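Why should sequence recovery work at all? Because a backbone constrains its sequence more than one might expect. Tight turns favour small or flexible residues, buried strands favour hydrophobic ones, and helices have their own preferences. The token representation captures these environments compactly. In the example below, the structure is given first.
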């Protein structure tokens, strides 16, 4: 039985993510498609939020979108001058691998982490030799990579059982915990310069979040509970110092954040929840996450647009509301939902088209009558397609129900795992784009993962514009 209060938080997390995709996906996609030789660390967190949704709602949720995020980044490239950016992508890839078990993600994560491991250095800094360079210019070391890399390393160890990753995680974590975390307070210092000067002044929630995450990962991998003691001390610091007081109580805060700060609360929320999952006796973590997420939704959200500004104590500030602040809130609200309890699971063989791997098509929610949070639109050009990643419980024939809307008669081709299954599926007019109908066809699926591609293939007779809503599969 799902608690209604828990479900409400899951619904809010779903809504924040849907708003992000509907309002900001065109610009995010354009940035990824046109910018080379760089990594957007925020894109990795949007990607993580998609996997969160799948974990909360079931493996058919956003499975195609997760693949789409991978494919776009794969076209652009995975390495750049900042090791922490590379590590955010490593974490998103490993999260995707944990969710899907697709070795594609693990293979790429290993390749990127090979580059990160080269950044370990014992010639710097000052009297504290050790740590991972922040960037390839080698001018200093930061919590952003030294806290994050141990998490990736442990997850690589768990996936591969290769002890080189666990050894690296222990080494990197021990150095940073020893020299860069205040032993009295648990405060995680931001960085150390090449000359050995430690920046103790800056307080960023994501620094504490990463060291909490690293400690939780190592405690799980090694069974050494001393790591959790460190995590609890750092969590106490975060909850005492990196806060604002609202009518709801204290909430997580980086102040009037902007720029990179828009996203800082995302990893802080994620890893505080992981600490709560590791030790649920600390209900104050769950309650803090719940208050913070509630504040983001009720105090910092614009009800007209669904946007959420960066400072969760509110009020909504349009000048501080963007994809980064909304993405951070989506992760933070999802973390609170996970801490509170499970949400409703989707029907296992129902796939929303807007959560597919989209090629040359858009998504919108302006017409009425659709299921889910949107539908695929703007679909009438040769070579465009929607790929659904369908996880079939058994091999065999499935009745596939295609729900769509169109003003004129249309047709599309369907292939399964690269083989044409239906060359020209007729989609009769539904009378307009606010009226939906379904057509059925039989498709043969293999057990496990299948790629069902619905494509506009002019040479096969595809024609017309279609708004695709969802496809359900029923075994015969």
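From this structural description, the recovered sequence reads:
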């Amino acid at each position: 039985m799902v608690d209604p209060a828990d479900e409400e938080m899951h619904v809010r997390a779903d809504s924040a993510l849907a708003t992000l995709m509907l309002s900001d996906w065109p610009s995010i996609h354009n940035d990824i498609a046109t910018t080379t030789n760089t990594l957007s660390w925020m894109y990795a967190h949007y990607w993580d939020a998609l996997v969160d949704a799948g974990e909360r709602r079931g493996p058919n949720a956003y499975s195609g979108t997760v693949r789409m995020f991978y494919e776009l980044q794969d076209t652009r490239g995975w390495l750049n001058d900042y090791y922490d950016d590379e590590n955010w992508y490593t974490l998103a890839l490993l999260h995707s691998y944990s969710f899907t078990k697709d070795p594609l993600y693990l293979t790429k994560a290993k390749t990127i982490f090979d580059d990160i491991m080269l950044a370990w250095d014992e010639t710097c800094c000052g009297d504290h030799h050790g740590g991972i360079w922040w960037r390839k210019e080698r001018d200093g070391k930061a919590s952003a990579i030294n806290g994050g890399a141990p998490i990736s390393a442990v997850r690589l160890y768990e996936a591969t059982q290769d002890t080189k990753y666990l050894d690296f995680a222990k080494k990197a974590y021990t150095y940073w915990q020893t020299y860069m975390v205040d032993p009295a307070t648990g405060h995680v210092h931001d960085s150390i310069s090449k000359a050995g000067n430690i920046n103790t002044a800056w307080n960023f929630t994501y620094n504490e979040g990463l060291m909490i995450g690293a400690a939780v990962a190592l405690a799980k991998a090694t069974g050494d509970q001393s790591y959790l003691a460190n995590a609890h001390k750092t969590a106490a610091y975060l909850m005492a110092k990196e806060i604002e007081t609202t009518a709801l109580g204290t909430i997580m805060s980086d102040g009037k954040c902007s720029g990179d700060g828009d996203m800082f609360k995302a990893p802080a929320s994620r890893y505080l929840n992981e600490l709560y999952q590791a030790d649920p006796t600390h209900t104050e973590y769950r309650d803090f996450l719940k208050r913070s997420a509630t504040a983001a939704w009720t105090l910092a959200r614009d009800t007209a647009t669904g946007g959420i500004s960066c400072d969760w104590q509110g009020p909504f500030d349009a000048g501080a509301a963007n994809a980064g602040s909304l993405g951070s809130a989506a992760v933070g609200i999802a973390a609170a939902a996970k801490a509170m309890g499970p949400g409703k699971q989707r029907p296992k063989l129902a796939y929303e088209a807007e959560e597919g791997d989209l090629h040359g098509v858009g998504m919108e929610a302006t017409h009425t009558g659709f299921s889910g949070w949107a539908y695929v639109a703007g679909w009438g050009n040769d070579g465009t397609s929607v790929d659904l990643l369908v996880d079939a419980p058994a091999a065999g024939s499935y009745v596939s129900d295609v729900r769509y809307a169109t003003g004129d008669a249309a047709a599309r081709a369907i292939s399964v795992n690269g083989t044409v299954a239906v060359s020209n599926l007729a989609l009769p007019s539904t009378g307009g784009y606010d009226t939906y109908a379904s057509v059925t066809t039989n498709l043969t699926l293999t057990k496990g993962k299948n790629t069902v591609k619905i494509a506009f293939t002019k040479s096969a007779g595809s024609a017309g514009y279609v708004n695709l809503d969802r496809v359900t599969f029923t075994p015969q």
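A few observations help interpret the result. The first strand starts at residue 140 and ends at 142.
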